[in-house]
Specification:
The protein has about 250 residues and is an alpha/beta fold. It is built from four helices and ten strands; from the N terminus they run ααββββαββββαββ.
């Protein structure tokens, strides 16, 4: 049970006003109510607020869980790939994971200690990048054959994911988000079996006040989109074959 002091500080602060304006029978009741309010604020409300603050701090600590990143083609308005002048049928072949560490995509370091881990749904980032490449080329006017198509392709694109790193570090007042990508592309021209090789690299960073998964996804998507655009910028089509503009 809470102990109520005979004279509360809050009561004393307003006792003069009560003496002047309240009848005698109401003064003692009012003093008691004011004292009760002060005790409740001091002994119940303040600890409750402190407990809520502690819960918030605990929420800023890492639990070792996995944060799935939804990667997709960057929205309209981002840098676009140059569409080939000649018709070209492209098939997307196998994309393999060639990263040194193939466990997840990176780490989020929490403000009050601990970490969480980033990954893509299915834990297959190379396949995810292949789907993104397909979506991006299609959205920009390339004739990409659907998987299982019986049409004969002019070019088959395969890839090796060398790097897809995502990191977020929370500090007091802001969170640093960084990403780095590196994708080796091989384009095989089926008419003469010639091969064009390219490396598409990208990097990006952004600071935000509060960490939000969607903000990080936006950074990664824009970096991947920008790297994909280099495929069209650095190549040209000659007689339905893909060639480097600057061999």
């Amino acid at each position: 049970m809470l102990a109520i002091e005979p004279a509360c500080a809050f009561q004393e602060a307003v006792s003069g006003m009560m003496e002047q304006h309240l009848p005698l029978q109401w003064r003692e009741v009012t003093r008691f109510n004011l004292c009760i309010r002060e005790v409740l604020v001091k002994h119940l409300l303040m600890p409750l607020i402190g407990g809520m603050g502690l819960i918030a701090l605990i929420g800023c600590a890492g639990t070792g869980g996995v944060i799935p990143l939804q990667l997709h083609v960057a929205p309209a308005g981002a840098k676009k790939i140059v569409k080939p002048d000649e018709p070209l049928k492209v098939a997307i072949g196998e994309f393999v994971d060639g990263r040194r560490s193939q466990t997840g995509l990176g780490v989020r370091s929490h403000l009050w200690g601990g970490v969480s881990y980033f990954d893509v749904p299915g834990n297959k980032p190379a396949e995810t990048v292949a789907h993104l490449m397909t979506d991006y080329l299609t959205a920009n006017g390339w004739n990409v054959l659907k998987e299982g198509s019986t049409e004969r392709a002019d070019v088959v694109l395969t890839g090796k994911l060398l790097e897809l790193f995502v990191h977020a570090k929370s500090r007091v007042g802001f969170t640093e988000m960084t990403t780095k990508t590196k994708l080796a592309i091989q384009a095989k021209n089926l008419s003469d079996d010639s091969i064009v090789r390219m490396t598409l690299s990208g990097a990006g960073a952004e600071d935000v006040f509060w960490f939000d998964r969607e903000d990080l996804e936006k950074v990664v998507n824009e970096v991947l989109t920008d790297s994909f655009s280099k495929l069209g910028q650095d190549t040209t089509v000659v007689n339905r074959m893909l060639r480097l503009t600057n061999p």
